[in-house]
Design brief:
Shape: elongated
Number of domains: 4
Oligomer: single chain
Helix content: 55-70%
Strand content: 15-25%
CATH architecture of the largest domain: 3-Layer(aba) Sandwich
Structural class: alpha/beta
Strand order of the largest sheet: 6-10-11-9-8-7
Radius of gyration: 36 Å
CATH topology of the largest domain: Rossmann fold
């Protein structure tokens, strides 16, 4: 039996009893204006009880169960940040109303009796609405104030960075964090964690492996003493795509986004959101090599052109060696002749130093 049906039955019984006990006063009152055709008191009592019971059966869910269901639905949809902002706003409003209640009670009647109650309702409502609708502004204000204070927790920083799913799956973020160069608190929104879990549950084996690798990287970051990781419930209502949510949060909270997703990078930059791209970092820290310098490199395979050999630097940069085919599987010294920078990366051309 559903809660609504139970509430209807209880409402019908309660109001039916009330109708039975109030039937006589109602009968006497109506009899002053309308002739009831000499109905007996018993008949009037029965009719009144039935009418009250029907009314109770109809309206009881709307004044008991349904309001609570609506509140539960509202609380379920609202983020923890919204609920906390509403609670703080309501508390501040009630405190202001309590301070104003005494001077308002000194006013002449009926204002001294009505205005304290009206102020309680008004300040509580307005403060709650203000804090919920402007929660991001208050959060940024609090963040700016606390960022000026020295951090006490180890690894905690006043600077915060939103982390995209692609950056976690990529895995290099864990190695970057170990170096200590990151210098920021990594904020992983709950919807990014949900997307990571969705990828790890994918039917495609490659996507499933990448998702599980991402979960392992996130766990490694949380256990690391070199960086502070926060799983946040911040969200953007009315937006479904993860990338769109990250860009909007980056704009609202003035947080940069850590990613290696090219499309997200471009969209965020167009909307004025700072982006920390792992691929750009990797290109920036590559060793600077100039034509004429010498390198020690192992030739591992043939090149595309005749008599070419190919080797790779530690950072993955390809080195094409002229007349290097005969040195395959050997470590030789080469002299850089040309450096070619393309959208796919950097390519170095060299020749054996002995020639």
């Amino acid at each position: 039996m559903s809660a609504i049906l139970i509430s209807r039955i209880i409402g019908a019984v309660v109001l039916g009893v009330i109708g039975a006990f109030t039937s006589l006063p109602i009968y006497n009152f109506v009899l002053q204006y309308v002739d009831l055709l000499a109905l007996s008191q018993g008949v009037v009592t029965g009719l009144t009880a039935v009418i009250f019971a029907v009314v109770g059966f109809i309206i009881t869910p709307y004044i008991t169960i349904k309001p609570f269901q609506a509140l539960i639905k509202l609380f379920t949809k609202s983020s923890a940040q919204s609920l906390m902002s509403g609670l703080i706003g309501m508390t501040i409003g009630l405190v202001i109303a309590a301070i104003m209640a005494y001077p308002l009670s000194l006013l002449p009647k009926p204002f001294g009796q009505i205005l304290p109650v009206a102020g309680l309702l008004l300040f509580g409502y307005l403060s709650t609405v203000l804090f919920v609708t402007r929660r991001e502004d208050f959060a940024n204000l609090y963040k700016n104030m606390t960022s000026k204070m020295p951090s006490r927790a180890k690894g905690e920083s006043g600077r915060r960075v939103l982390v995209d799913t692609s950056a976690i799956i990529d895995g290099r973020i864990a190695d970057i964090a170990k170096t200590g160069f990151l210098g920021a608190t990594l904020v992983v929104p709950r919807f990014v964690l949900n997307e990571l879990q969705f990828v790890s549950d994918s039917a495609d084996s490659l996507r499933r492996q990448r998702g599980r690798r991402g979960l392992e990287v996130l766990g490694e970051l949380q256990e690391s003493k070199d960086v502070n990781v926060v799983i946040s419930d911040i969200d953007v209502e009315g937006v479904r795509e993860v990338d769109d949510k990250l860009v909007l949060l980056g704009r609202q909270m003035n947080y940069p986004i850590l990613t290696n997703d090219f499309n997200l990078n471009r969209v965020a930059e167009l909307q004025g959101v700072k982006v920390l791209n792992i691929n750009d970092l990797a290109n920036a820290v590559k060793v600077i090599i100039l034509p004429g310098e010498s390198l020690q490199i192992e030739v591992i395979q043939e090149g595309k052109e005749y008599n070419q050999g190919v080797g790779y630097l530690d950072d993955g940069t390809m080195v094409v060696i002229e007349n290097g085919q005969r040195y395959i599987d050997k470590q030789i010294e080469v002299t850089v002749t040309k450096i070619l920078q393309t959208s796919a990366g950097r390519m170095i051309f060299a020749k054996p130093s002995l020639e």
